[in-house]
Specification:
The protein has a six-stranded mixed sheet, with helices on both faces. Helices cover 31% and strands 14% of the residues. By secondary structure, the chain is of the alpha+beta class.
Length: 855
């Protein structure tokens, strides 16, 4: 019996394993761009369509013979000219199979006076009896050339990487480490008995070729089936300017993995001379993704998510990927467990956003039809037959839950609900987890999502895929996704190697993994720390809700009231904002320091501000009446206005940094990309203000509904993230003074929320002061980030135009967060009525008649 088992294992180990003979998808695109070829040129040379090239570079489909071999030859030729990234075994196989010309990396003679170009790796020549013996390359660890050193790994089994440094074996740069020293992975620079000859790896070094054993394949036989495609592609790879050109050698660029040595006083002389000789313009320099980013992206060729629907034939299921295309394979079977297995086999998921972060789990969205096909109930009120929204999850006795358990899958404490997380216990540090989204159970009916009713399954996949690409794969509501984005960009811990072994270390600039309590003045009234707090001893931070009476001049000359809204005010305030990274320290009579985030008990009632503008120190815009708690931002603004401050107490954070800056940058870019997709580019307001105002006015009427939904989701993500930092208890049965689940999140910190809101308030007050100085106009009402002005006409330019005819930059028209757009206009008679009724007119300025809510 034991012998049979050993024989079975030996047979399993002897089975040939599939190998990758193509680089990772991201590297395919990078190599093509490095050679300055377009997708159209490559498609024409291969006699295929551009869409096919797009899919190859995205990894959604793979080329098939005979075009596969020709495509490999194209990429391998470019890799020898421009260098490639790890893993590099595919290039070795291409060389071994004879798919690369012997002169692929040959360079022309340099122009007179030009420096010699650095040597790049050459393909291995055919073995011959006269060939010199291959020199052995000993390892850097004192052993012979047969010594194998395992690369350093984290406790989770992931490779340790650092800044690229010369490999101790071959000298070429590598990010990976072995015993703490730079070392290539996969035996790339280790001598191999299967090598066919020397490979030049640098200006002065020659080492054995890293080519591993591969079946001998006749090069001509591999290329003959491709016919004209092979010849055209060979011409394209060798001659960048045309698809077919006479044989002229091209000058290679230095491999990014090779050590560089200056051959003249100007390192770029040879590169410029070679390009000049070829009549080519230098390509624009663009910083490409790092090694860990490329490796992370290569792990998920199918993209972040899939929408599963019933096939058009009515039989079986189909899956639509993030770009709306149908997946090459579909879930087999009619059980939820089969769908989950398929999602992992299809390699759905999203790459990590930080070197020390975690990859995003696959997201599977089930349409209503797929839900019924899988035997899951619709939403209703019958607890035995339907999904009851009040309960939040299916009963544990439901057959689908039982099927998942039988297949070895587990559910979180939330169970199988609208946003379910299905996972297995990790093995060997490998995570197996799939996120489920069920719109029929209300997953996308609220929480910041505004999905068009007429959207089909491919359209829903594109919509959610766009959000996933620009922001993050959805994890629930937009607020929850926003918090997940914060942690994804600022992971709390990383694996650190010490003399005692691996341990968990803090990531610089991040908050600790474990939550800490804020200061008593900062918490809401139901928090345990607030139960013994004296009345009035609370840090009150809310957005403005203020208005005033009209002046006599405004009543006489102004016919309209015009509202201006600040784009993504809270998001704009978070950029480079100093935020706490540690718990509070209580100090008496502290010396104020604007660089330290915290809460300060100080009297600001003596600070003079413009009476026609709201006070920046209170939520209702009234003047302070005595000592109160303020955040660092407001106290610093009082100092900016010329006040002398003497805090009585302080709860200070001496460890701090721009914690939300990466979150701000990613959401800002997502917002700008979405606005550009809707036809409002970032520079439109500067080049044509009227065209910008028209485009914004017609945005909802003419914009793509899916892009509009993405835009709303991005806005709600920014707003919801800030709100979650002071999330109050939810649900029935809560008693004040008890802790609730949100308090255990490291991102639950009311001071962070206060600092962001106060920064937005101070920024707007500063702009309103400058607006009054530029145009003589004072805001008559403010609601959060919307300011209302008395104007002679109904247009935004009626209040933004200075007396000299130019536009003011105090409130600047534009798309970017922090700039303003036209909120709406109302006749001044209606505004006077609202004020008389003690109603803030800024709440009723929207052009579509909607009533604005407090932020």
């Amino acid at each position: 019996m034991t012998d049979d088992l050993f024989a079975s294992i030996d047979a399993l180990l002897a089975r040939p394993r599939p190998v990758d003979d193509l680089p990772v998808p991201a590297e395919r695109e990078r190599l093509r761009k490095a050679g300055e070829y377009t997708q159209e040129e490559l498609a024409a040379a291969l006699k295929t369509r551009r869409e096919t090239i797009v899919r190859w570079e995205a990894g959604t489909t793979e080329p098939r013979p005979p075009k596969r071999e020709v495509y490999i030859r194209f990429l391998a030729t470019l890799a020898l000219q421009h260098g490639t990234v790890e893993p590099t075994e595919w290039l070795c196989r291409a060389q071994a199979a004879g798919l690369v010309r012997a002169d692929s990396a040959a360079a022309p003679a340099p122009a007179p006076g030009a420096a010699a170009a650095p040597t790049v790796p050459q393909p291995a020549p055919a073995a011959s009896a006269a060939a010199p013996p291959v020199p052995a390359v000993p390892t850097a660890f004192g052993g012979g050339d047969q010594t194998v050193v395992e690369l350093d790994r984290t406790a989770a089994g992931e490779l340790i990487a650092g800044p690229p440094a010369p490999c101790v074996r071959c000298g070429r740069a590598t990010p990976y480490r072995a015993q703490g020293r730079p070392m290539h992975m996969g035996g790339w620079c280790t001598p191999d008995t299967g090598a066919t000859g020397p490979v030049q790896t640098g200006p002065t070094e020659a080492v054995a070729s890293p080519v591993r054993s591969a079946p001998a394949v006749d090069r001509q036989a591999r290329l003959e089936p491709a016919g004209a495609s092979a010849a055209a592609l060979e011409a394209l790879a060798q001659h960048p300017n045309t698809a077919a050109a006479p044989a002229t050698p091209t000058a290679p660029a230095a491999s990014p993995a090779a050590p560089r040595r200056a051959a003249s006083s100007h390192p770029a002389a040879s590169s410029r001379a070679a390009r000049k000789a070829l009549g080519r313009k230098p390509a624009a320099k663009a910083e490409g993704p790092s090694d860990w980013e490329q490796a992370a992206a290569a792990r998920f060729p199918a993209g972040p998510l899939a929408v599963v629907d019933v096939a058009p034939t009515g039989r079986g299921l189909v899956a639509y990927l993030a770009d709306g295309t149908q997946a090459p394979t579909a879930p087999a079977g009619r059980t939820l467990a089969a769908v989950v297995e398929w999602a992992l086999e299809a390699r759905l998921g999203s790459p990590r956003l930080h070197r020390h972060g975690k990859d995003g789990d696959a997201l599977v969205v089930l349409t209503d039809a797929a839900l019924a096909e899988l035997g899951l109930p619709a939403m209703g009120r019958d607890e035995k037959r339907d999904f009851v929204q009040r309960l939040g999850a299916l009963p544990k006795t439901h057959k689908t839950v039982k099927q998942l358990e039988k297949a070895g899958w587990l559910l979180t404490q939330r169970g199988l609900g609208p946003w379910a997380r299905i996972y297995r216990t990790p093995e060997d540090g490998r995570r197996q987890c799939v996120q489920l989204c069920i719109p029929a159970w209300g997953a996308l009916a609220s929480g910041g999502w505004t999905i068009p009713d007429s959207l089909d399954a491919p359209g829903l996949a594109r919509l959610l895929g766009t959000y996933a690409t620009r922001v993050l794969t959805p994890r629930g509501s937009t607020a929850v996704s926003g918090l997940e984005l914060v942690t994804a960009l600022r992971p709390p811990t990383k694996a650190v190697r010490t003399e005692a072994g691996w341990t968990s270390g803090r990531v610089e600039g991040s908050r600790p993994k474990d939550a800490f309590d804020p200061a008593p003045p900062e918490v809401p009234d139901v928090h345990p720390l607030a139960q013994d707090r004296e009345p009035g001893a609370e840090l009150v931070t809310e957005a403005w809700d203020w208005f005033r009476e009209l002046t006599d001049d405004e009543k006489k000359t102004a016919l309209y009231a015009v509202g201006l809204d600040v784009n993504m005010a809270f998001l704009a305030a978070a950029g480079r904002l100093t935020l706490p990274l540690s718990g509070p320290v209580h100090e008496l009579n502290p010396l104020f320091d604007k660089a330290i985030p915290g809460s300060w008990l100080v009297d600001l009632s003596h600070v003079e501000t413009d009476p026609l503008l709201p006070s920046p120190f209170t939520a209702d815009g009234s003047r302070p009446t005595g000592p109160a708690w303020y955040s660092t931002v407001k106290v610093a603004y009082a100092v900016e206005l010329g006040a002398t401050v003497r805090p009585l107490e302080g709860w200070l954070r001496h460890e701090h940094g721009p914690y939300l800056d990466p979150w701000h940058k990613r959401l800002r870019q997502a917002y700008l990309e979405t606005m550009a997709a809707l036809g409002v580019p970032g520079d439109l307001a500067d080049t044509d203000p009227l065209a910008f105002l028209d485009a914004m006015a017609n945005l909802k009427a003419t914009g793509d509904p899916a892009e509009l939904a993405v835009l709303t989701a991005i806005k709600q993500t920014a707003k919801g993230t800030i709100g979650k930092m002071r999330e109050r208890p939810r649900g029935h049965g809560y008693k004040p003074g008890e802790r609730w689940a949100a308090l255990e999140r490291p991102t639950w910190d009311p001071l962070m929320r206060a600092l962001v809101i106060d920064t937005a308030t101070v920024n707007l007050h500063r702009k309103l002061r400058k607006m009054a100085a530029d145009t003589g106009l004072h805001a008559l009402a403010v609601l959060s980030d919307c300011a209302v002005f008395a104007a002679p006409g109904p247009g935004a330019l009626d209040i933004l135009t200075k007396p000299d005819g130019t536009l003011t930059t105090s409130l600047r028209l534009g798309v970017s967060p922090g700039m303003v757009k036209h909120e709406g206009s109302r006749p001044m008679a209606e505004i006077a009525e609202l004020i008389a009724d003690d109603t803030n007119p800024a709440r009723h300025m929207k052009a579509d008649g909607q009533v604005s809510a407090d932020e």
